[in-house]
Amino acid sequence: xxxxxxxxxxxxxxxxxxxxxxDDLTVDRDxxxxxxxxxxxxxxxxxxxxxxxxxxxxxTVLTVGPEDAKDALxxxxxxxxxxxxxxxxDDLHGTDAxxxxxVLAKAIEKAGYDLVISGMAxxxxxxxxxxxxxxxxxxxxxxTLLSEVSVEDGTVKGRRDGxxxxxxxxxxxxxxxxxxxxxxxxxxxxFKGIMAAKxxxxxxxxxxxxxIEAEEVGLEGAxxxxxxxxxxxxxxxxxIVKDEGEGxxxxxxxxxxxxxx
Amino acid sequence: MAEVLVYVDHVDGAVxxxxxxxxxxxxxxxxxxxxxxxxxxxxxxxxxxxxxxxxVLTADAPExxxxxxxxxxxxxxxxxxxxxxxxxxxxxxxxGKEIAARLAVRIGSGIITDAIDLEAGDEGPVATQSVFxxxxxxxxxxxxxxxxxxxKPNSAAVEPAPAAGxxxxxxxxxxDKATGTRITSRTPRESTGRPELTEAAIVVSGGRxxxxxxxxxxxxxLADSLGAAVGxxxxxVDAGWYPHSNQVGQTGKSVSPQLYIASGISGAIQHRAGxxxxxxxxxxxxxxxxxxxxxxDYGVVGDLFEVVxxxxxxxxxxxx
Lengths: 261, 320
Ligand SMILES: Cc1cc2nc3c(=O)[nH]c(=O)nc-3n(C[C@H](O)[C@H](O)[C@H](O)COP(=O)(O)OP(=O)(O)OC[C@H]3O[C@@H](n4cnc5c(N)ncnc54)[C@H](O)[C@@H]3O)c2cc1C
Ligand SMILES: Nc1ncnc2c1ncn2[C@@H]1O[C@H](COP(=O)(O)O)[C@@H](O)[C@H]1O
What we know:
The complex is a heterodimer.
Chain A: E1 3-8, E2 11-13, E3 34-36, H1 38-53, E4 57-64, H2 70-79, E5 83-87, H3 97-111, E6 115-119, H4 130-138, E7 142-152, E8 155-161, E9 165-172, E10 175-179, H5 191-197, E11 202-205, H6 218-221, E12 224-231, E13 239-242, H7 247-257
Parallel strand pairs in A: 1-4, 1-6, 4-5, 5-11, 6-10, 7-10
Antiparallel strand pairs in A: 2-3, 7-8, 8-9
Chain B: E1 3-7, E2 10-11, E3 14-15, H1 17-26, E4 31-37, H2 45-50, E5 55-59, H3 62-66, H4 70-83, E6 87-91, H5 94-106, E7 111-119, E8 126-131, E9 136-142, E10 148-151, E11 166-169, E12 181-188, E13 202-206, H6 216-226, E14 229-232, H7 234-238, E15 259-263, H8 269-272, E16 280-285, E17 298-301, H9 304-319
Parallel strand pairs in B: 1-4, 1-6, 4-5, 5-11, 6-10, 7-10, 13-14, 13-15, 15-16, 16-17
Antiparallel strand pairs in B: 2-3, 7-8, 8-9
The structure holds flavin-adenine dinucleotide and adenosine monophosphate.
Flavin-adenine dinucleotide sits between chains B (207-209, 233-236, 247-252, 264-266, 268, 270-271, 274, 284-287, 290, 303-305) and A (38-39, 123, 181).
């Protein structure tokens, strides 16, 4: 039987560009360059490797996001995923993590799945909670923050490097997995992959396709409110000295002045 | 006064510092009630009482150690139901965030992660967060349900505030989902004897400029002269020179010490995301154009192999 893998990927503003907030205090996604969150490339990579090991597997990449989020899906398809689902609806604007997890869970159920693979965190929100939320909603095991993952005979295994210990985890499918950037470099799309991606199917769903009411998501439906966003004042220019042989001693003098020594 | 639930991070009964910081913040909102789970849970009571916990709810069962996250969610939910708190505060570790998130969905509440400050507000607790690699500071609230908020280490000063700290056994019934993800083995991280990276007052980090695992001894010597923790950039970690558990940045640890010393680190946005909120920042880099110099209070343009050992020697001399 075919192993159905759904990879959740997010379209995010480029971290090396100028990121800011829109007037309604949501992340500005219109005026900035976006891309497939780098941390989700690791999820796509692990899906491809797991699919390679399986007799028969199909990888669907799923995103919840604005029109431009199709770029993220294209990138994942050009890396080698088989098909894509784009959940897109004007009422989704401003959805928070709780709402996003609802939409993802409904879409994953509708798509059909044995294994969900997510990134460790989005590079814009950096909450790192959506995979756990999706697992809670789907009612399946969460096997998260893995730096190593494998699937065999309906069981997913992996290594989770925590703060105080490194743990080996194991769960039966279906399950939700998230992988870290320690799981192995993500491949670059080949020219052939990019050409093939153009022909791969991208399905669009809106909220009504998922039986979700507009009030459950979006800025109005959000469970959290941002009251203010202030640009951090640039740090006041510090003292910079060129080492002429006494740099270490000068630095010690500064640290002593600050009472660190 | 309303009660505030505080999830306790401890190792065999030894309470970790971020939990004591949480108790300080919790007292701004209400009376802290602590929840300690797993082996040694009851041993946490003395430290928690000393820092303001009026009650300490404890539970121990093999499930906490043998299965991932969900048993702890079940227990925290049981505590939530018995206390009906005004807010639930959880330390912002990877596991803490996952526990908090799942609890939030179950109780129909919103969640805020990685707060760096917390105050009481007219419409519930107001959390300060540092976002976009610390480029912005936001203030937000949970607008539905009971606020569930995770707080980063080093967000508040630990303040003693003796309270009763009465130990009460928490009764927990595990859901059938609790045993979904089995932990088949656990290898504890070896202690280096140095302070915990996220909790340290001083962090000394090395990057690609350190140029080799053996050269990290220079960084470690500086750290030891200051009683500091050692950090590394991802470039140094990816090169295999230093363990990933010491990585500072977006996909490593986020630190906010009194003093951060970066040597041979360029200061890429993803690195800054994990250290930009440090109080005092110092850098040694041979490239005067390195972006890290935009952040520093004091910077030395020079070769770290000259500057860092000299600094270490000078510190040792001054300390006598
Ligand atoms: C999704 C994502 C997540 C990431 N997460 C992280 C993260 O968590 N943490 C992180 O650090 N990075 C992270 N990165 C990587 C980041 O973009 C940079 O590549 C990395 O921080 C560079 O490390 P570096 O500064 O040590 O190396 P480089 O950028 O190569 O800088 C080395 C510096 O050392 C200086 N130098 C060299 N020799 C000497 C010498 N002898 N004396 C003094 N100075 C010298 C050079 O002038 C240079 O400025 C992430 C990237 C992505 C895409
Ligand atoms: N809008 C989204 N669409 C698809 N996947 C998402 C979305 N938001 C988050 N995810 C997934 O959840 C992971 C963690 O995100 P977060 O909890 O927001 O940091 C990401 O790496 C993605 O795999």
